[in-house]
Amino acid sequence: MLLYAVADIHGRSDRMAAIKSNLETYRPNVLIAAGDITQYRTLQIISELGDLSLPVLALRGNTDLKRVELQFALKENIVFLNNRDVTLQGVHFAGASGTIPVPFRSRIAFREKFIWERLMPMMTPQTILIAHPPPWGCRDRVVGKYHAGCKSLERFIRDSQPALLICGHIHEDVGTACLGKTLIVNCAMGSSCEGAIIDIQNGRITAKILKTNG
Predict the structure, then answer these.
(1) Nearest one of 38, 4, 46, 2 to 21, comparing CA atoms
(2) Residue 206 neighbours by CB under 8 Å, 6+ apart
(3) Core-most of 3, 50, 70, 139, by most CB within 10 Å?
(4) Residue 154 in contact with residue 136, Cβ under 8 Å?
(5) How far lies 179's CA from each of 30, 39, 57, 185, in Å?
């Protein structure tokens, strides 16, 4: 399976144009939209995602108001991963929506204990977990030195060890890292990044960060 993972579109038409271009180039099986899809009131991007001809797994970030959930529900190809799981083409995905803004410490949501207790029974060593913020200490540095990831997410990953975490939120620290056996991919779109292409073959996962042409 080939995944195209993005986060932090922030309702921007130029970022949506980059997504469509990369979809044409790489022809992935699934698009992952790991939060901050809109910028509070800009819902047009959800319509454009709904017009795509492939499944989209989406969750809310801190700039996605609750009303985007209704917009997701209206689109047949969009699956809203709000503390739930889904299996596509034999690959298991689970997701947790939300975060509160940095600096310098992020939280996945205000009811973190409930979220992790609900997700833990869903987790397997093959699960692909999607969350908006990165875990504390992994691809989470702001201004080059301050960790701004989510500590409860870091603990959850250490306890559950999914195969992969797809995240965003920290635009300045895109890239890959490992937390135990879990590959971390921060795919936040920005001036230097158009997301990540993730290839899953026979249990092996490889990730390529897509650099902007500029």
Answers:
(1) 4
(2) 198, 199
(3) 3
(4) yes
(5) 24, 30, 23, 11
Strand extents, DSSP E, the chain? 2-6, 30-34, 56-59, 78-80, 84-88, 91-96, 128-131, 141-142, 146-147, 164-167, 175-179, 182-186, 193-201, 204-211
SS3 for 166-207 is EECCCHHHCEEEEECCEEEEECECCCCEEEEEEEEECCEEEE
Name the CA dihedral angle for 100, 106, 108, 110, rounded to a multiple of 10 degrees.
-60
Domain of residue 145, residue span: 2-211
C-alpha–C-alpha distance, residues 213 and 144, integer Å: 23
Nearest in space to 82 (alpha carbons), one of 67, 74, 94: 94
Element (H, E) at 17: helix 13-26
Query: Would you state the structure tokens that stand for residue 177, as one six-digit string?
Result: 């890292």
* H or E element in which residue 50 lies: helix 44-50
CATH of the domain at 36: 3.60.21.10
Tens of pLDDT, residue by residue over 101-122, are 655 678 887 788 899 999 999 9
pLDDT digits (tens, 9 = 90+) for 54-113: 999 999 999 999 999 999 999 999 999 989 999 999 999 999 998 876 556 788 877 888
